[in-house]
UniProtKB/TrEMBL annotation:
GO molecular function, one term: electron transfer activity
UniProt xrefs under NCBIfam families: thiosulf_SoxA (TIGR04484)
Gene symbol of the encoding locus: soxA
Main location: periplasm
Keyword terms of this UniProt record: Electron transport, Heme, Iron, Metal-binding, Oxidoreductase, Periplasm, Signal, Transferase, Transport
Species lineage: Bacteria, Pseudomonadati, Pseudomonadota, Betaproteobacteria, Burkholderiales
EC number: 2.8.5.2
Official protein name in the record: SoxAX cytochrome complex subunit A
Organism annotation: Pandoraea eparura
Domain Cytochrome c as annotated: residue spans: 180-291
Active site: C252 (cysteine persulfide intermediate)
Length: 291
């Protein structure tokens, strides 16, 4: 048995947290190898982007998000909550119990709530109305901290997203509420505010922008929007945690020094609707792998 096979066997025996830690160390080692081999090339931006792409490709077969998906599937199918029922009858927009390809068609309007919901907000609704959990308890800590095990919401979102892998993104604009959500999301995307007069478009509204070694996609262009939307939720290697689209919206607001977004707020759903519509026609590949 060669060294790679020994490592693979060892990783299979690790717990979710242990394997994630092992993968983080492997990632850092890989980055150092790439940096060492390609040091002169880092002088050129194109070479830097290629090196980062190489590092991501190297890890594509070892995405810790798969472990989070497995946990999410277990949570989805296990009777829980005051009502002791599973999420098997949760309607994600394609009918009660249908999970396959549902994430690729969210956000969308739901008649029972009379509003547009993204995947995470819809999961919360099902946990509250099907399983009997209190909403305040469900959303009290939606995001795990660096290095922690995933929260239930993160795991459930990873599972639902994974069931749309390969599906074509089709965020509806049929219902009036869906059109209104898109319009509001577009307005928020370009709205400048806060102490630095930033907007989402400040970072994501033009080509060839970068922060440190991270390219910033121009989300006003369909190709870039498709690539971005299709890979969230994603496992953030630098944080050792799976991050969801709600987290991504929250963190973008934080970096703009804007007030913190409430989990599942109308503003967050509207922004995700805008991005989803811009990404229509792309192919889902989530959970993805992030730096």
């Amino acid at each position: 048995m060669n060294e790679a096979q020994h490592s693979a066997r060892a990783s299979q025996r690790m717990s979710t947290a242990g394997r994630a830690a092992w993968l983080r160390r492997t990632v850092l080692g890989g980055m150092l190898v790439i940096a060492g081999v390609s040091a002169p090339a880092f002088a050129a931006e194109s070479s830097t982007a290629e090196a980062i792409a190489q590092y991501r490709e190297m890890l594509a077969d070892g995405n810790p998000a798969e472990l989070v998906e497995m946990r999410g599937e277990e949570l989805w199918k296990t009777p829980r909550g005051p009502n002791n029922v599973s999420m098997a009858q949760c309607d994600l927009g394609l009918g009660a119990g249908v999970v396959k390809n549902a994430y690729a068609q969210l956000p969308r309007y739901f008649a029972d709530t009379k509003r547009v919901l993204d995947a995470e907000s819809r999961i919360v609704e099902c946990m509250v109305h099907l399983q009997g959990f209190k909403r305040a308890d469900v959303i009290k800590q939606p995001f795990s901290k660096q290095g922690q095990d995933p929260t239930d919401l993160e795991a459930l979102t990873a599972y639902v997203a994974g069931q749309s892998r390969g599906a074509i993104i089709h965020v509806s604009q049929v219902h009036k509420e869906e059109k209104d959500a898109y319009a509001r999301g577009q307005k928020i995307f370009y709205y400048r505010s806060g102490p630095y007069d930033f907007s989402c478009a400040s970072c994501h509204g033009a080509d060839d922008k970068r922060i440190r070694l991270q390219d910033l996609p121009n989300l006003t262009k369909p190709a870039a929007a498709r690539q971005a939307f299709a890979t969230w939720p994603g496992y953030r290697v630098s944080q050792g945690a799976l991050r969801t689209m709600q987290w991504r919206m929250n963190d973008c607001f934080r970096q703009q020094r804007m007030p913190v977004l409430n989990y599942g707020s109308q503003a967050s759903i509207d922004l995700i609707t805008f991005l989803g519509v811009m990404a229509n026609g792309g192919k889902m590949d989530a959970p993805g792998l992030k730096r």
